[in-house]
Amino acid sequence: MTTASSLRATRASYDTVAADYASLLADELAAKPLDRAMLGAFAEQVGADGGGPVVDLGCGPGRVTAHLRDLGLSAYGIDLSPGMVAEARRRHPGLRFEVGTMSALDLADGSLRGAVAWYSLVHTPPEELGPYVAEFHRVLSPGGHLLLAFKAGGGEGVRLEHAYGHPVDLDVYRFVPERVAGLLVRAGFEVRARLVRAADPAERTPQAFLLAQR
After folding, report:
1. What is the β-pairing status of strands 53-57 and 112-118?
2. 40-98: per-residue pLDDT in tens?
3. In angstroms, what CA-CA distances link 45 with 50, 141, 153, 185, 210?
């Protein structure tokens, strides 16, 4: 599991960049139709199964949480960074946001109908993803839906010491989509859809999306 010191560094880095991160990425989804399509497919599937609570794991400043709400879902956000949660609450006062850790969610077994981890696993070494996937499986009810978004690659990490105009202390990992899909299957999920799209002009790597059902 990701070490406590790594989690502290990640939390501190996102506390530092929260306001500028939120401003720079506020309209990011508007230029990414394939990303929106995956979020839309997730929302339709949750709705078709009767709806219910959906959590945006690693929600940051809440832009994806708000998008899920706009798609008709009962969505709220959880993030490691108190600074990000404060920014999300300021920008989206009608939505619920809480501080929490994805590896140990303060949620009852089977309490969610859907969960989204939108690039929020990118600071987790590939060999440590399994417990996170198991935790997602635990909190989803039978038939619940999961959407993962991440940077596609060969498992390599990139060190970040400056981002969003601030010094940070972060490692960013790129995952092999087939390996992540295998982790989902071993945890008890059925992978329903996979998408790997080319990098857009502001990105350096392809981007991967996995839609799975418990």
Report:
1. parallel
2. 999 999 999 999 999 999 999 999 999 999 999 999 999 999 999 999 999 999 999 99
3. 9, 14, 28, 19, 14
